[in-house]
Structures are given as structure tokens and as C-alpha cells.
Design brief:
Blueprint: E1 9-12, E2 18-21, E3 25-32, E4 35-40, E5 46-56, E6 59-68, E7 74-82, E8 94-97, E9 101-104
Antiparallel strand pairs: 1-2, 1-9, 3-4, 4-8, 5-6, 6-7, 7-8
Family: Belongs to the yippee family.
InterPro entries: Yippee, Yippee/Mis18/Cereblon, Yippee_fam
Protein name: Protein yippee-like
């Protein structure tokens, strides 16, 4: 088996579709629905669902669930809007749950 020298990626744990780059991690200290989650600046090969307001640990946010584009597994959510000034940095960013992604090319 040949070694891979591509970029370090995260893939959907269900179907191995590439969904984000390791270099796009902003923080590893987030809480998802099912445990730890990572905040990413970008995601790829995902589908963004409808927007809805949710009360999260850090206040009211408009978020949209993020699904794997291949298998439709829910991977996390996208922050569309933060109502608290201190949370504005999250807007346009993605939460991917650690339990739903796996490392590739490490």
C-alpha cells in the first residue's frame, strides 16, 4: 500500500467523504450535540440545511445543520448568525462533531 502525502484531512466517519482540512481548524474546544466538536473555518462536500434559531451554551445563534453530501449523515452545524457581540467570530464557521469525522493522511 503506497503512503499518501496529501493534506491532512477529516472525513465523514460513515462514508469517508472528505469534509474538511486540518489546517482549517480554529478550535478543538467546542461542545457538539454528542460530545466534543471542532470549529472549522471551512467545510467541503457538505450540504447546509435550513436556518433556525437555537439556544446554545453561548447564547442565541442562527444555525443550519450540516450534512455529508454523499451519505447525508448529520456532521454538525454552520453558524449563520450570532446575536452576542462576543460570539460574532463564529459567523460563517462550521462545527463538526469529533464522533462524526475521522482523520485521513496523518
Amino acid at each position: 500500500m503506497a503512503e499518501s502525502f496529501g493534506p491532512r484531512l477529516y472525513s465523514c466517519s460513515n462514508c469517508r467523504n472528505h469534509v474538511s482540512l486540518h489546517d482549517d481548524i480554529i478550535s478543538k474546544s467546542f461542545q457538539g450535540r454528542n460530545g466534543r466538536a471542532f470549529l472549522f473555518s471551512h467545510a467541503m462536500n457538505v450540504v447546509v440545511g435550513p436556518k433556525e434559531d437555537r439556544h446554545l451554551l453561548t447564547g442565541l445563534h442562527t444555525v443550519a445543520d450540516v450534512y455529508c453530501a454523499d451519505c447525508r449523515e448529520v456532521l454538525g452545524w454552520k453558524y449563520e448568525r450570532a446575536y452576542e457581540v462576543s460570539q460574532k467570530y463564529k459567523e460563517g464557521k462550521f462545527i463538526l462533531e469529533k464522533a462524526k469525522i475521522v482523520k485521513e493522511n496523518w
